[in-house]
């Protein structure tokens, strides 16, 4: 759950408008990744350093349990207006508190957020 995708609003609107499959309307990013009509220029993937890889951590908000963890993190780090929480500190905190990680460990991934690496090669347009 540390993936980050950046799209223009126009690109998201276009994907939603042109998508054919039901899942593409709920999660329009697969339509953008597939880029079947070559209507998007896709940027390269930036991969976090190995010391931050934690596939067992869910830091997305699909379930109430996910929200509970995010709430714990925000209470722990108490960011001020506009302040960004350092992900290295979050990972360290979760490493040191495995009981927190267990809160949402049984939640299923609702959709695959990982775009195929070979698809993401061009600079973003739109």
- Sheet-strand content, in percent, reads under 5%
| Average residue-wise pLDDT | 82
Task: Report Rg.
Answer: 17 Å
Structural class: mainly alpha
Distance between the ends? 26 Å
Largest sheet, strands/sense/barrel:
none
What letter string, H or E per element, gives the SSE order?
HHHHHH
| Helix residue percentage | 25-40%
Q: Quick one: overall form?
A: elongated
Helical run tally: 6
Number of E strands: 0
Low-confidence stretches: 113-126
What topology does this entry show?
Layout: H1 9-18, H2 22-26, H3 29-34, H4 64-77, H5 87-96, H6 98-102
Fold and architecture overview:
- This protein has 126 residues and is mainly alpha-helical.
- The chain has six helices and no strands.
- It has helices spanning 9-18, 22-26, 29-34, 64-77, 87-96, 98-102.
- 7% of the residues are buried.
How would you briefly describe this protein structure?
The protein is mainly alpha-helical and 126 residues long. The chain has helices spanning 9-18, 22-26, 29-34, 64-77, 87-96, 98-102. Helices cover 40% and strands 0% of the residues.
List keywords for this structure.
about 130 residues, mainly alpha, about 0% strand, elongated, disordered C terminus
């Amino acid at each position: 759950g540390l993936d980050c995708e950046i799209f223009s609003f126009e690109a998201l609107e276009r994907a939603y408008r042109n998508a054919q499959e039901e899942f593409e309307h709920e999660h329009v990013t697969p339509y953008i990744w597939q880029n079947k009509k070559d209507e998007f220029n896709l940027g390269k993937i930036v991969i976090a350093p190995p010391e931050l890889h934690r596939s067992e951590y869910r830091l997305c908000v699909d379930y109430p349990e996910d929200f509970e963890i995010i709430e714990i993190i925000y209470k722990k780090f108490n960011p001020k207006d506009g302040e960004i929480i350092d992900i290295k500190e979050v990972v360290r905190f979760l490493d040191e508190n495995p009981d927190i990680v267990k809160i949402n460990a049984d939640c299923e991934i609702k959709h695959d957020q990982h775009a195929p690496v070979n698809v993401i090669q061009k600079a973003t347009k739109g």
